[in-house]
Automatic annotation (TrEMBL):
Pfam families associated with the record: NamZ_C (PF20732), NamZ_N (PF07075)
Every Peptidoglycan beta-N-acetylmuramidase NamZ C-terminal domain range: 229-387
PANTHER family attached to this UniProt entry: HYPOTHETICAL 460 KDA PROTEIN IN FEUA-SIGW INTERGENIC REGION [PRECURSOR] (PTHR42915), PEPTIDOGLYCAN BETA-N-ACETYLMURAMIDASE NAMZ (PTHR42915:SF1)
Domain of life: Bacteria
Protein name, entry field: DUF1343 domain-containing protein
C-alpha cells in the first residue's frame, strides 16, 4: 500500500511546540487541508497555535472568488479571525499588518505553474518579512505536477507581473518551500526562513500518486482532470476562445460557437499523451456565457509524458490558422492587470509572444521547442531542493 502524503502542516503539529511561534499571522485559504481532511487553520487552532490574523491570496479565503477579481478584507466565519486580503487594496502585507505578529505561517496549496498567483503572493510575503524582520515558516506541500520542468523561462525585464514576477520556468518542478529558499538566496532577502517539509513525497510523484482526495485549489481547478489540462489550455485566456470556465470541466474543454470541424491532425502528431474528442458546452460565465460552444475535450493519458506548454501553443497555432476570420487575441483584465494587455506575454514570460504565431509551422515549432528548453534551471535550483 502507498504511504499517504503528509503535508507540512501535519508535520508541524506532530513535531513542534506551538509556543515556539508566538503570535501567528497565517496566509491560507479553504483549499488548505491536513492530510486527514481538516482545514489547516482549524487544525492549527485546535492544536494550540496562537493565530491572531489571516491573510488570503487571490480568490479569497474561500478559494472560490472569481478569477482576477478584487477580494476585500473581512472576518473569517469559521474562526472569527480578521482577514487581510492580499488581492484587494494591496498585494503585500503592510508593516501595520505585521506589527503584532511574531511569525508568519504560509500554507496555501499550489499547482506547480509559474502563472498560478499563490506563488507570487508568497514572494511579496517574503519581501515584507525581510523588510519587517519577521520569521516566515512555510508549511510545504507537494507539487501535484511532479518535479518535471518545462519552459519558457521568464523575461524578467519585460514580462514581470503578478502571474510571473521572477525568472523561473512555467512548469518549475518545485514546491513553494524550495522556491522560497531560492528567492531568499537570489534576491538576498535574508529572511529568517524555515521550511516545514512534507513527508512521503518524491519528485516523480503526481497528485494521482498521493493516495488522497482531490481538493479544488481555485474556482476553475475543480478536479485532477482540470489541473492536468490547465497548463495546456491556460494560454487561451489571451484569446477570444472559451477555456471552459463556467462549465463542468474548466480547462479540460475549450470551444467557441464558430469552432466547427477543426482538423487536429498536425496538433496530435506533435503532442504526446493527450487524447481529444469533440464536445459542446454552454458556459455559465466568462466568454460566450449562455451560448452554445463547439469544441474539443482534452484528456491527458500519461502525465509523465506530456509537454503541456508545447501542446498549448500548438493548439492555438492550429486554431488560428484554420479560423483566421474568427480567431483573435484578447485582453484579460484582472485586479493585478486592470487593462488586461499583453496577457500572452505575461503568461509565457516571452516578449511579443503573439509574433511567434505569424511564423510558418516549422519555424514556429522550432522556436517553441527552443523556448520550452529550461537550460540551466536544474543546476540553478539544485542547492535549494528538499526532495
Amino acid at each position: 500500500m502507498k504511504s499517504t502524503i503528509q503535508f507540512g502542516v501535519d508535520h508541524l503539529m506532530t513535531n513542534f511546540d506551538p509556543l515556539k511561534f508566538g503570535k501567528i499571522g497565517l496566509v491560507t485559504n479553504d483549499a488548505a487541508f491536513t492530510s486527514s481532511g481538516k482545514r489547516s487553520r482549524i487544525a492549527l487552532l485546535e492544536a494550540g497555535f496562537e493565530i491572531t490574523k489571516l491573510f488570503s491570496p487571490e480568490h479569497g479565503i474561500s478559494a472560490k472568488g472569481a478569477d482576477g477579481a478584487f477580494m476585500p478584507n473581512g472576518t473569517d466565519l469559521s474562526t472569527d479571525l480578521p482577514i487581510v486580503s492580499l488581492y484587494g487594496e494591496k498585494l503585500a502585507p503592510s508593516t501595520a499588518d505585521l506589527d503584532e505578529i511574531d511569525t508568519v505561517l504560509f500554507d496555501v496549496p499550489d499547482i506547480g505553474l509559474r502563472y498560478y498567483t499563490y506563488l507570487w503572493t508568497l514572494s511579496y510575503v517574503l519581501e515584507e518579512c525581510s523588510r519587517n524582520q519577521k520569521r516566515l515558516v512555510i508549511l510545504d506541500r507537494p507539487n501535484p505536477l511532479s518535479g518535471v520542468i518545462e519552459g519558457p523561462m521568464l523575461d524578467e525585464e519585460r514580462c514581470s507581473s503578478f502571474i510571473g514576477r521572477w525568472d523561473i520556468p512555467v512548469r518549475h518542478g518545485c514546491t513553494l518551500g524550495e522556491l522560497a529558499k531560492l528567492f531568499n538566496s537570489e534576491k538576498q532577502l535574508k529572511v529568517d526562513l524555515q521550511i516545514i517539509p512534507c513527508l512521503n513525497w518524491q519528485k516523480n510523484m503526481f497528485f494521482s500518486d498521493w493516495n488522497l482526495d482531490f481538493q479544488p485549489t481555485s474556482p476553475a481547478i475543480l478536479s485532477w482532470e482540470c489541473m492536468l489540462a490547465y497548463p495546456v489550455t491556460a494560454y487561451l485566456e489571451a484569446t477570444n476562445l472559451s477555456d471552459g470556465r463556467g462549465s463542468d470541466t474548466p480547462f479540460a474543454q475549450i470551444g467557441a460557437p464558430w469552432l466547427i470541424d477543426i482538423n487536429l491532425t498536425r496538433f496530435l502528431e506533435i503532442t504526446t499523451a493527450i487524447e481529444v474528442e469533440p464536445c459542446q458546452f454552454i458556459p455559465e460565465e466568462g466568454k460566450f456565457r449562455g451560448e452554445l460552444c463547439l469544441g474539443i475535450k482534452l484528456k491527458v493519458t500519461n502525465p509523465s509524458l506530456y509537454h503541456p506548454t508545447l501542446a498549448g501553443l500548438c493548439l492555438i497555432k492550429t486554431i488560428r490558422e484554420q479560423y483566421p476570420k474568427y480567431f483573435a487575441w484578447k485582453p484579460y483584465p484582472t485586479r493585478a492587470n486592470p487593462a488586461g494587455t499583453r496577457h500572452l506575454d505575461l503568461l509565457l514570460g516571452v516578449f511579443e509572444a503573439e509574433k511567434l504565431f505569424d511564423l510558418p509551422w516549422d519555424a514556429f515549432l522550432s522556436s517553441v521547442l527552443d523556448l520550452t528548453n529550461t537550460n540551466k534551471w536544474q543546476e540553478r535550483v539544485k542547492p535549494h531542493l528538499l526532495y
